[in-house]
TrEMBL record:
Alphabetic keyword roster: Signal
Stated name of the protein: Bug family tripartite tricarboxylate transporter substrate binding protein
Family: Belongs to the UPF0065 (bug) family.
Superkingdom, natural source: Bacteria
PANTHER family for the chain: BLR1237 PROTEIN, TRICARBOXYLATE-BINDING PROTEIN
InterPro entries noted in UniProt: BUG, Bug_dom1
Signal peptide per UniProt: 1-27
Length: 326
């Protein structure tokens, strides 16, 4: 009869080293063995936070470990990005972020303290948060073309809110392409900009559906167009701005990263679980209720290529619109 021997952790490690096996590979096989933190760069109640909580709950169920949402808001996503970039790349700190940190900040922020490509491991794109151009009902325009005509006839009489990078770049791009004189008003939060366009303190606002979804269903604002060239399945009767301004295409994407150096096997594991989660019709409907469209990538490599593509695209948009880094 052959004898069986039980090895302790130390002996197993020694044997693994002696045989040339990598200990990280052993760790990956048991991943995850502890709770996972999903860092979100915006405050609780934001569109990204709402999506993160749905995804975290479902991901935790599939991984058999809690996935805890950690809101680290501030500095236009920079605080959270730096925190994740410095975290241990073991798969227990993940980052659900948007084009703000990885497409726009590199062009809008001087002295950025992280590199969107070198400091992160792309895991998966989750989807996009559509943005819509809305106006106060007092503005006599029911189409994008009518808004352009009105703005040209009334230079400097309209103003728009810019509480985030997508609103800023979309609004400045609109102004650049149409050669209109419209005044930009910076805001610290989307809800305040939305409140002010309803109150006619500003007349225009490129709003994210996550925060404006309920308001768009009322008569307190008028929705003229969506920023994505393909339109939005959440607003099927609202035309894309590109129908009037060919080439206009600004998308606010959402995805998950880990710190640079995270094992590929872990990135692929999380990506695979997300694929299954996002195919669930109930999950898609739950996310649609907060104005979010599911649009996952098939592999981490596909997401990595998309991130690089979007970084270059946003650089062109920022330069074209003449927006200076602050």
């Amino acid at each position: 009869m052959k004898k069986r021997y039980l090895l302790g952790a130390g002996a197993a490690a020694a044997m693994a080293a002696g045989l040339g096996f990598a200990l990280p590979a052993l760790a990956q096989e048991s991943y995850p063995s502890a709770p996972i933190t999903l860092v979100v760069p915006f405050a609780a109640g934001s569109g990204t936070d709402a999506v993160a909580r749905v995804v975290a709950s479902k991901l935790g169920e599939r991984l058999k470990q809690p996935v805890i949402v950690d809101n680290r808001a501030g500095a236009n996503a920079q605080i959270a990005a730096v925190h994740v970039a410095k975290a241990k790349p073991d798969g227990y700190t993940l980052f659900m972020t948007t084009n703000t940190s990885h497409s726009a900040n590199p062009w809008l922020v001087k002295g950025l303290k992280y590199d969107p490509i070198k400091d992160f491991t792309p895991v998966a794109r989750v989807g996009e948060l559509p943005f819509a151009l809305i106006v106060h009902p007092s503005v006599p325009a029911r189409t994008v073309a009518e808004l352009i005509a009105y703005a040209k006839a009334h230079p400097d009489q309209l103003s728009y809110g810019t509480p985030n990078s997508t609103s800023l770049v979309a609004s400045e791009t609109f102004k650049y392409i149409t050669r209109t004189q419209i005044t930009g008003v910076p805001y610290k939060s989307s809800p305040q900009a939305l409140t002010d366009v309803m109150g006619n303190q500003i007349q225009m606002y490129v709003a994210d559906l996550g925060s404006a979804w309920g308001t768009l269903k009322t008569d307190r604002v008028r929705t003229l167009g969506v920023t994505a060239a393909k339109g939005s399945q959440l607003l099927p009767h609202v035309p894309a701005i590109a129908k009037t301004l060919p080439g206009f295409d600004i998308t606010s994407w959402n995805g998950i990263f880990g710190p640079a150096g995270m094992p590929r096997a872990i990135a692929e594991r999380i990506n695979g679980e997300l694929q299954l989660i996002l195919k669930d019709r109930a999950v898609q409907e739950q996310l649609a209720q907060v104005g979010f469209e599911v649009w996952p990538t098939a592999t981490p490599d596909e997401f990595a290529a998309y991130v690089k593509e979007q970084l270059a695209k946003w650089g062109q948009l920022v330069k074209q619109a003449g927006i200076e880094a602050q």
